[in-house]
Amino acid sequence: MALIVGMAAGIMLIQAVGAYLRYLPFEARLLTEERARFWKYILFWAPVAFGLYVAYFWHSGFDVAAYKRVNYFGWMPFFAFSLLVIRRGAVRHVFVLGMQMLWYFLLHTMSGVLILALLPPAFGTGVPRLSVQTALYLFLFLAMLPLERRIFRRLLPPYLFSGNRWAGWCFAMMPLGLCATPFVLLLDRPLMYTWSDMLLRVALFFGGIVLYRYLLYIGERAARMQNERHTNELLTRQLEALEAHAAMLQSRAEEVQRARHDLRHHNRLLLSLLRGGEVEKAVDFIEAQDRALMASPVAVYCKSPILNAALTVYVQMAKRDGIRVSCAVDMDKTNVFGGRDNDLAILLSNVMENAVIASRKQPDGEREMRVTLSHVDGQYALVAENRYDAPIAFGEDGLPTTKERGHGTGMVSLRNFAEKYGASVLFEQRDGWVRLLMYWDGEENVAR
Q1: Which of 99, 104, 197, 101 is CA-nearest to residue 144?
Q2: Is 410 exposed, middle or buried (0-12, 13-18, 19+ CB in 10 A)?
Q3: Which strands sit side by side in the sheet containing 324-330, from one edge to the other?
């Protein structure tokens, strides 16, 4: 009975520490409520699993086959809790699971090596080996805990699964594919106990690490190239927006110049009317000229030139397409974003361009968009809404996705802005409207 209780406790602890390793890659981005809920589930299930293992071993008898069954299937509830609480994309969870499995095999291999090298041959197989190997596994886990925390906390760089969805799944399944080999070998053997078996597991682990590092290098290069291409596209768009705004200002300047050129003739006509005693005609003439001068004023949304340029260009673009536009900007300073107005202007340009493109697909009379940008005590809030009836596909990060070539740059810009400034982003589609809500602390990020 003591053996059954001890082995049930050991296996439960191994599976619990496996859940802990799988938790570490997501720990930094979890809310306090999510962390508390995760550990509540783990602490609830651990004694339940222990009781189930004791009952199973007591009923079926403790042997190698029973040990394998509990190890093969007992980790699944712990993994299900991770999927339930840590909602960061199934593809990431699958990848982390595979890497944790590789580490699991490495620690088992190291404990097996210690048994073969230091203990009598009687401990090389059967139940005696299982008890010793379980204890050694837990000892090695505790001894290597600082290294494990360092490795698993850095397991998921931001760019790792930001590319093609199917490529991401292939990459996520890679470590599980490597784990399949020792799993298959375990099916028809009592235990893995020979030196060749040990070397195979070690080779698989280090092969997986080498492949992982190489794929990280490729992913980093791809992410860097994508960012450079994205930056070039954004700079081009920014230049086009500024050129359009400059052309608009030039057009207004030419109109003012023509008005000044005609002012002398208008004054002469006005003087003639007044000398002739035709006061009412003179008043009508003055009112008509006043209406002409005010017919096409230059829109001023805020004191930041580059933000005003971005807003003006896309508001005019929307109006030309028959889109009703409401634009409310509460920015009462010229330097509203700590000298980083360019980033905010690029974000606004992409958000408004996406809204214009989506609104064009709506029937005439149902095209409308609203943009609100406010700044209060260093806190920024952006709300962009547009009518759009067709269903939108959302990715694992909660942002809209598209398969159309040449599109999707706006979401890359939004994602980069959110990561740079720590912005909270919420996209939703409800009642025929698509809404983007963003909130960030500008003072904190400008001070960095």
Answers
A1: 104
A2: buried
A3: 324-330, 368-376, 379-387, 433-441, 424-430
Domain with CATH 3.30.565.10 in the chain: 300-446
Choose among 414, 429, 428, 423: nearest CA to 441: 423
Domain covering 300-446, topology: Heat Shock Protein 90 (3.30.565)
Q: Rounded mean pLDDT of the chain?
A: 78
Whether the Cβ atoms of residue 137 and residue 105 lie closer than 8 Å to each other? no
pTM of the model: 0.55
* Rg of the chain in Å (alpha carbons): 33
Measured distance between the N- and C-terminal CA atoms of the chain, rounded to whole angstroms: 60
**CA dihedral of 283, 289, 293, 296, whole degrees rounded to 10:** 100
C-alpha distance from residue 166 to each of 16, 88, 163 (Å): 31, 17, 9
DSSP for residue 394: B
Could you tell me which residues come within 8 angstroms of residue 396 by beta carbon, excluding any fewer than 6 positions away? 88, 89, 90, 91, 161
Which helix (H) or strand (E) segment is 21 a member of?
helix 2-23
pLDDT tens per residue, range 343-372: 788 888 888 888 998 899 898 888 999 999
- Summarised one tens digit per residue, pLDDT across range 41-64 is 999 999 999 999 999 988 888 887
**DSSP state, 28?**
G
